[in-house]
């Protein structure tokens, strides 16, 4: 997750006349639009085995499902099994589906509606929030980093910092109240998950909460809009990447498009109703000294429907130096595999680099 600019993007239409637009949504709504500009053509290596895409129907290796209720109100046996399952999911996938999470279906649906309400505003209303700096409290933009991307990505986004200081859009009506409630619920959810993850690493229950300074931690809402693409085989919503932060709690609008990399293959993740998709992020990999791996994921696009995803980033405070937990290290058998770095510096590093795979995380590996 990183910053972008509000720079207008130039394209050539079929008759080679140069026009400009400020978002993918604006482009798709332009007259006679039926093919994507060459600047959006995303090519991959045809010999790369990672380009094999499979559906999650392998009975021997299914996507992990974690029952949150067993973690927080279950019996001791249920809780112990859930912590074991979390450990296995974080080690083998860096990803799991979370059910029975106590965030109401009505709140999830209302939040999705409010996000769509924003993206459906007039372009000039959205451009009020166009930002350039990585820590602008509200940033609207397109692609990933328009000024630096060699290939543009088929998405528009809005990112809002909601903790430690709460910020909100002024439009659409009701966004502030809905996003405030949603932020409170997901922050509590994330912190409780991190308690279970602490225990799964053999650490005391509040270890991550304390050492990552979550009392003043960073929480961001990041919504991505992927309009229908007339040539989806040529475009990519977001390239393969991992996220900064500890956890990413993701919901979708009922249209699938998320793909996670697992055992050398891309796995399509279905859009399951009333379920959070939990992605292990870079700072949890660093803190666990690589025991838990941040998941590489990407966003595919389609020509049939608009997809919207809403991610909640649960992250350390900006001044926290994230480094491997000393309790997990042994100078001989398990030395530190990452250098420590302030969270804010890591975000700046991500903004200034090309987004692909773990290109940023690799820069702090020893």
From TrEMBL:
What gene makes this protein? LOC101506444
Family under the similarity heading: Belongs to the iron/ascorbate-dependent oxidoreductase family.
Q: Which residues form the Fe2OG dioxygenase domain?
A: 216-316
InterPro entries according to UniProt: DIOX_N, IPNS-like_FE2OG_OXY, IPNS-like_sf, Oxoglu/Fe-dep_dioxygenase_dom, Plant_2OG-oxidoreductases
Q: Does the keyword Membrane apply?
A: no
Q: Which GO molecular function, any one, fits this protein according to its record?
A: L-ascorbic acid binding
Pfam families per the record? Answer: 2OG-FeII_Oxy, DIOX_N
The protein in question is named Protein DMR6-LIKE OXYGENASE 2-like
Question: Organism source for this protein?
Answer: Cicer arietinum (Chickpea)
Q: Where is the composition biased (Acidic residues)?
A: 48-57
Question: Which residue ranges does UniProt annotate as crossing the membrane?
Answer: none
Keywords (A to Z) from UniProt? Iron, Metal-binding, Oxidoreductase, Vitamin C
**Which superkingdom does the taxonomy of this entry point to?**
Eukaryota
PANTHER family, per database record: OXOGLUTARATE/IRON-DEPENDENT DIOXYGENASE
UniProt cross-references to SUPFAM superfamilies, sorted A to Z: Clavaminate synthase-like
Q: Where is this region: Disordered?
A: 1-57
Q: Does the keyword Metal-binding apply?
A: yes
Which residues lie in Polar residues bias regions?
1-47
Q: Which PROSITE patterns match?
A: FE2OG_OXY (PS51471)
């Amino acid at each position: 997750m990183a910053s972008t600019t509000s720079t207008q993007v130039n394209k050539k239409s079929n008759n080679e006349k140069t026009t400009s637009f400020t978002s993918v949504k604006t482009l798709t709504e332009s007259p006679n639009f039926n093919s994507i500009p060459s600047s959006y053509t995303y090519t991959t290596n045809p010999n790369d085995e990672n380009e094999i895409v499979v559906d999650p129907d392998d009975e021997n290796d299914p996507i992990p499902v974690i029952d949150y209720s067993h973690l927080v109100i279950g019996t001791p046996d249920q809780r112990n099994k859930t912590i074991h399952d979390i450990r296995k999911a974080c080690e083998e996938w860096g990803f799991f589906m979370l059910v029975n999470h106590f965030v109401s279906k009505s709140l999830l649906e209302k939040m999705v509606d409010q996000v769509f309400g924003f993206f459906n505003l007039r372009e000039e209303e959205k451009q009020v929030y166009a930002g350039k700096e990585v820590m602008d409290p509200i940033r609207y933009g397109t692609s990933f980093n328009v000024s630096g991307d060699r290939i543009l990505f088929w998405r528009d986004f809005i990112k809002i910092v909601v903790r430690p200081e709460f910020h909100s859009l002024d439009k659409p009506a009701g966004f502030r109240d809905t996003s405030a409630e949603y932020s409170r619920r997901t922050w509590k959810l994330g912190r409780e998950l991190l308690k279970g993850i602490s225990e799964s690493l053999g650490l005391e229950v509040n270890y991550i909460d304390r050492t990552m300074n979550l009392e003043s931690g960073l929480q961001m809402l990041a919504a991505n809009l992927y309009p229908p693409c007339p040539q989806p085989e040529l475009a990519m919503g977001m390239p393969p990447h991992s996220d900064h932060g500890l956890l990413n709690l993701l919901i979708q609008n009922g249209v699938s498009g998320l793909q996670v990399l697992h055992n050398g293959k891309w796995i399509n993740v279905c859009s399951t109703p009333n379920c959070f998709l939990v992605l292990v992020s870079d700072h949890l990999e660093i803190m666990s000294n690589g025991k838990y791996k941040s998941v590489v994921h990407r966003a595919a696009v389609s020509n049939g429907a608009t997809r919207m995803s809403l991610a909640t980033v649960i992250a350390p405070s900006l001044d926290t130096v994230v480094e491997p937990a000393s309790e997990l290290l042994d100078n001989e058998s398990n030395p530190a595999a990452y250098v420590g770095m302030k969270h804010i510096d890591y975000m700046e590093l991500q903004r200034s680099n090309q987004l692909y795979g773990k290109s940023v995380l690799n820069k702090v590996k020893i």
